[in-house]
C-alpha cells in the first residue's frame, strides 16, 4: 500500500515530477549525454511549473472575483472535492494506474498512438468516474472496474479524436491534447470546417495603427477582464449587493478602482507567464519524448494540457472566452428552472476548455469557426452541467458546477447511465 500511495501521490499526482520522469526516460533511451539528460529533465519540470504558475494566477488572482460574484448571487457552487477521499482515494488511485497501463499497452500494439500525459487529469477523470458510479449506487469491484473501463477508454479515445484537429492548429503531428475540452473542441472544429473559412484567421484581424497595442494578448486580455469586472460591478449593484463586500475590499484603504485594475493586470501577468511556460515545456518534452516513441512505443506522441496550443492563436483564445461568457450567461437565464440545480457561468471552463475550442474552430474555419464554435460551446456547456446534475446530485454536483460543462460532464453522464443499467 505504501508503494501504491507513493506512485499515486508523488509521481502521477505531481505533474512536474511525472513529466520530468517521462523526459528522463526519453532522453536516456536516446543515449543523450549526462549534461543533456539533466538539463532536459529539469527544464521540463521548470517549464511545467512556469505554465502552472501562469494558470494559477489566472484562476486564483484574476477571474476568481467573477466566480465569487456569481456564487454570491446564486450561492450553490463550490470547487472543493465533495466525496469522501478517505473512502474512495485508494479506488481512484487504482483506477488511475490501471487506465494508464492500458493506455501504454493500447498505444504499443494498435494504431492509436497517443499517451495521456496531462498529470492532474490523470487524477480528475478517475475521480469523476468513481463519483458517477457512487452516485448510481455502485460499490466495490463493480465500481472500480466500471471507472477503470471509462477512464481507460477516455485516455485512448479523447487524445486521438483531438489529434487531427491539433495538427490543423500546429501544422505538425508532434503532440496532441489530453484534456476535457475534447467534446467542445471536436464540435467547434468540425463546425468550423462546415461553415467557416480558415484563410480568415483571428490572428490576421486588421487593427488600426493607433490600436496596435491590442496585438499583445496580455494587454487585450487585461482590457477584456477589466470590462467584464466593470459590468459585473453594476450587476452586483442591480442585485442590491455591495461589490466591496462581495470582493473583500470594503473597509480597506483602496476601493473598486484598485481591485478591478489589479485583477485585470493579473490576468495579463498570468497569460504572459503561462505562454512562456508553454514554450518552455513544448521545447523540452517533445524532443525528449522521441526516445519513448522510437524505443518503447513506436510512433507514439504525447497528449498534453490544453494551454500548449494557446501560443498558436491567442486572439482566438480571448475571443472564445468572451463569446462563451456571453452565450453561457444568456443560456442560464433562458433555462432557469429547467434543471434540478442552479447553474452559474463557468468562468474556468469558458477560458480553458472553450478557449481551446475556439482555437480549434479558428484553425478549421477562421474567425467564423472560432466565434460560432465558442458560442455553441457556451450553450452546450450549460446543458451538460444541467443534465449532469441528475448524475452527480448526490456526490460532486457542486464541484461540477465550477469545473464541469465539458468531457467531465459528458463522459460522466454516459457512465452514470451504464452504472444504472448494471446496478
Task: Characterise the protein shown here.
This is PTS ascorbate transporter subunit IIC. By secondary structure, the chain is mainly alpha-helical. Helices cover 73% and strands 2% of the residues. A three-stranded parallel beta sheet has the order 1-3-2. Helix 1 crosses helix 5 and helix 2 packs antiparallel against helix 3 (34-62). It starts with a helix and ends with a helix.
What's the layout of helices and strands?
Elements: H1 2-12, H2 15-29, H3 34-62, H4 64-73, H5 85-109, E1 114-116, H6 119-136, H7 140-170, E2 176-177, H8 182-195, H9 217-238, H10 243-247, H11 256-295, E3 301-304, H12 314-334, H13 347-351, H14 353-392, H15 397-403, H16 407-422
Parallel strand pairs: 1-3, 2-3
Helix pairs in contact: 1-5, 2-3, 2-11, 3-11, 4-9, 5-6, 5-7, 6-7, 6-16, 7-8, 7-14, 8-14, 9-11, 9-12, 12-14, 14-16
Features:
3 strands, PTS ascorbate transporter subunit IIC, 423 residues, 16 helices, mainly alpha, single chain
Brief summary of the model shown:
By secondary structure, the protein is mainly alpha-helical.
**Average pLDDT over all residues:** 91
Number of strands: 3
Roughly what percent helix? over 70%
Strand content: under 5%
Largest sheet: 3 strands, parallel
Which spans of ≥5 residues are poorly predicted at pLDDT below 50? Answer: none
Series of H and E elements: HHHHHEHHEHHHHEHHHHH
Radius of gyration: 21 Å
- Cα separation of the termini: 29 Å
Alpha plus pi helix count = 16
- The general outline is globular
Helix/strand class = mainly alpha
Protein name: PTS ascorbate transporter subunit IIC
Amino acid at each position: 500500500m505504501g508503494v501504491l500511495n507513493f506512485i499515486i501521490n508523488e509521481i502521477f499526482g505531481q505533474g512536474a515530477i511525472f513529466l520530468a520522469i517521462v523526459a528522463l526516460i526519453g532522453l536516456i533511451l536516446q543515449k543523450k549525454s549526462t549534461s543533456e539528460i539533466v538539463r532536459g529533465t529539469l527544464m521540463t519540470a521548470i517549464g511545467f511549473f512556469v505554465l502552472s504558475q501562469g494558470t494559477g494566477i489566472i484562476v486564483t488572482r484574476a477571474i476568481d472575483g467573477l466566480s465569487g460574484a456569481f456564487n454570491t448571487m446564486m450561492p450553490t457552487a463550490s470547487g472543493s472535492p465533495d466525496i469522501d477521499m478517505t473512502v474512495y482515494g485508494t479506488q481512484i488511485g487504482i483506477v488511475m494506474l490501471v487506465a494508464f497501463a492500458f493506455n501504454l499497452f493500447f498505444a504499443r500494439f494498435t494504431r492509436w498512438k497517443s499517451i495521456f500525459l496531462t498529470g492532474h487529469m490523470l487524477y480528475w477523470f478517475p475521480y469523476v468516474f468513481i463519483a458517477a458510479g457512487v452516485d448510481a449506487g455502485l460499490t466495490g469491484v463493480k465500481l472500480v472496474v466500471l471507472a477503470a473501463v471509462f477512464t481507460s477508454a477516455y485516455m485512448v479515445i479523447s487524445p486521438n479524436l483531438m489529434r487531427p484537429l491539433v495538427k490543423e492548429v500546429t501544422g505538425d503531428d508532434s503532440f496532441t491534447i489530453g484534456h476535457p475540452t475534447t467534446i467542445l473542441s471536436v464540435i467547434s472544429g468540425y463546425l468550423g470546417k462546415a461553415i467557416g473559412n480558415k484563410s480568415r484567421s483571428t490572428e490576421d484581424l486588421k487593427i488600426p495603427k493607433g490600436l496596435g497595442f491590442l496585438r499583445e494578448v496580455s494587454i487585450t486580455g487585461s482590457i477584456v477582464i477589466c470590462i467584464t469586472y466593470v459590468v459585473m460591478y453594476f450587476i452586483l449593484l442591480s442585485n442590491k449587493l455591495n461589490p466591496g463586500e462581495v470582493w473583500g475590499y470594503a473597509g480597506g484603504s483602496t476601493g473598486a478602482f484598485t481591485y478591478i485594475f489589479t485583477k485585470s493586470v493579473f490576468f495579463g501577468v498570468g497569460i504572459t507567464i503561462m505562454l512562456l511556460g508553454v514554450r518552455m515545456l513544448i521545447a523540452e518534452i517533445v524532443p525528449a519524448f522521441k526516445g519513448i516513441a522510437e524505443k518503447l512505443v513506436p510512433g507514439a506522441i504525447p497528449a498534453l494540457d490544453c494551454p500548449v496550443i494557446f501560443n498558436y492563436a491567442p486572439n482566438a483564445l480571448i475571443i472564445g472566452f468572451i463569446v462563451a461568457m456571453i452565450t453561457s450567461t444568456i443560456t442560464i437565464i433562458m433555462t432557469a428552472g429547467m434543471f434540478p440545480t442552479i447553474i452559474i457561468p463557468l468562468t474556468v471552463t469558458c477560458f480553458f476548455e472553450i478557449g481551446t475550442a475556439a482555437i480549434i474552430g479558428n484553425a478549421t474555419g477562421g474567425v467564423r469557426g472560432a466565434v460560432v464554435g465558442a458560442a455553441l460551446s457556451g450553450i452546450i456547456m450549460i446543458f451538460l452541467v444541467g443534465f449532469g446534475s441528475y448524475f452527480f446530485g448526490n456526490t460532486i454536483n457542486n464541484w461540477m458546477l465550477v469545473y464541469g460543462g465539458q468531457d467531465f460532464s459528458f463522459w460522466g453522464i454516459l457512465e452514470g447511465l451504464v452504472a444504472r443499467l448494471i446496478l
